[in-house]
Amino acid sequence: MTQLLKTLRPWRLPHLALMAAAGCLMVTADGHAVSSAWVETEGGRIRITALPPSSDGIIRAILDVDLLPGWKTYWRDPGDAGIPPSVNFEGSTNIEQLRLDFPPPERVDDGYSVWAGYTYPVAFPLTLTQDKAGAASVLEAQVFLGICKTICIPVQNSFSLTVDPDAKANSFEQRMVDRAYSQIPEQAGHDISIREVTFSVQDRALSMSIAHPESMTDLDLFLTAPSGWYFDIPERIGGNDGISNFNISVIDAPADTSLSGTELQILVTSSTRSMETVSKVP
């Protein structure tokens, strides 16, 4: 079974010892409806909700993370610290492929570091492709993520969920999934795009120009770095007429490596819109 999964980075949290002391919570949640049972953990609860498969074999689902006030979880690439969510569907029946999407994050300052994540309940869209379109699928999902407050709790759970094409999602589940999918960043288009990306070996920094509507004044930038690379918070250094320029310093990188020829996943956000694209460094 083909899996489109993100490789986890080494944890680089200053409070790693506290995380190790907390340990991992291992729970199995069994369900044979559209939604699994909630799995309770310190700081919140998690579950998986899946809609019945479409006639072309697509199952839209979500990893639902219901955080308690004051607790946080991580984006795909938190920065130089954090545990990004991962979902593995190995062992599932009638599932060929998985794509995990992320809604736009915010920058979180926990006093130890500044990282990308979520300080509120969040739903991560899961798009699954069936081997046999329109038939039933049994989802065997392994979920791993971090939920943090003053310490960070690594949470590892297993879910078993039967998705039947003859089942009907209730209106609440349908709205939850639809809302999560509506928050997936749009693709680059005529009014939001990456104009230029350069990398200075001498300065150990990326430079980037972004074209966008002038109404998007609160622009921010998030990068998914190649394995072993860690970037500082992007610094907006001006621009005009719908062009914004950013400088991104390198915090750490593998020895004797270059970003030249590397593809970067780039997320541009504002309070009203978000765009995600892939751009190659010359």
Keywords:
Immunoglobulin-like; mainly beta; 2 domains; 2 helices; 5-stranded antiparallel β-sheet; disordered N terminus; 7-stranded mixed β-sheet; 282 residues; globular
Structure description:
There is one protein chain. The longest helix has 12 residues, at 171-182. A hairpin with a 4-residue loop joins strand 20 and strand 21. Strands 1, 5, 6, 8, 9, 11 and 12 form a 7-stranded mixed sheet that branches. Strands 2-3-4-10-7 form a 5-stranded antiparallel sheet, covered by helices on one side. 35% of the residues are buried. It has helices spanning 16-22, 171-182; strands at 25-31, 39-41, 44-50, 58-67, 72-74, 86-88, 97-100, 106-109, 114-118, 122-129, 137-148, 152-163, 186-187, 193-200, 205-211, 220-224, 230-231, 235-236, 243-252, 263-269, 274-280. It is mainly beta. It is globular and about 55 Å long. It contains 2 helices and 21 strands. It has 2 domains: 16-184, Immunoglobulin-like; 187-280, Immunoglobulin-like.
